[in-house]
Amino acid sequence: MPREKVNQLCSLLIERAIGNIADEQEQQYAQLRAEMMRIPYVMDKAPEFLRQCRDIKEFWYFIKEIPSYRERRKFLRDSFDELINFLDQGTIFSDSSSLFIAIENVDSNYILNEWTKIKARVLTDPEAAITSARTLLECVCKHILSECGQESEEAHDLQDLYRKACRELNMAPEQHTEQVFKKILSGVVSIVGGLASIRNRYGDAHGKAITQAKPSTRHAEYVAHLACATADFLLKSLEEKVEREANVLSVVR
Questions:
Q1: Neighbour tally for 120: CB within 10 Å
Q2: Helix (H, G, I), strand (E, B) or coil at 67
Q3: pLDDT reading at 206 higher than 80
Q4: What is the model's pLDDT at position 236?
Q5: pTM for this predicted structure
Q6: Which residues of 92-106 are buried (b: 16+ CB within 10 A; e: fewer)?
Q7: CB distance 140 to 229 below 8 Å
Q8: CB atoms within 10 A of CB 19
Q9: If exposure means fewest CB atoms within 10 Å of the residue's CB, which of 62, 125, 151, 184 is most exposed?
Q10: Is 96's pLDDT higher than 60?
Q11: Which of 161, 130, 127, 129 is nearest to 146 (CA)?
């Protein structure tokens, strides 16, 4: 759940707690609460009163037991602190995540746009999130090939793109002799192939049969985390390669 929606819910409850009543509060509370209830790891960190107060009226009966406006504000802000801190630090989709920092370092609007789409879609549109997860990896692989002076065809297969990018980063299985590394790197190639297949079957890029099963939010989250973790690893590996080559050049000079 995006941090801004938690802030929105907290602000809405503060307004109601200090007597500022608006017609849209009932609907907004119901929508935001429903979103939180659908995500177990969010509800684990959410204030207990959100489980008990099914609508804004029940919240009012709860909060009016706290005597002053100042105490109500403090209580609500404190109640949401744990969840907000968790969302800031505990997910690859947060703006403080290592992937976001890596994306900022490469300064690629294409990569940033796809990562932003995944964040926006993963809980509300699983099919679109799966498509964006694959596109994110494609963008990262093409960026790596471009930075290494290699060309990539527009309609290239994702697994082929990944293999080419890995060779440039010295991460291809055949470039290593240690069996444990070869197994890990081969496993990632298989994962990338799986991501491509999942997108072809369950993403929103192709028409679907009426009877075909649709991916759930947990499927989209799993695919998105795999894609983001792989993208993070690739971008950090590229950064290390660039630094290593720069150090060699400085020694030569």
A1: 15
A2: coil
A3: no
A4: 92
A5: 0.62
A6: bbbeebebbebbeeb
A7: no
A8: 10
A9: 151
A10: no
A11: 161
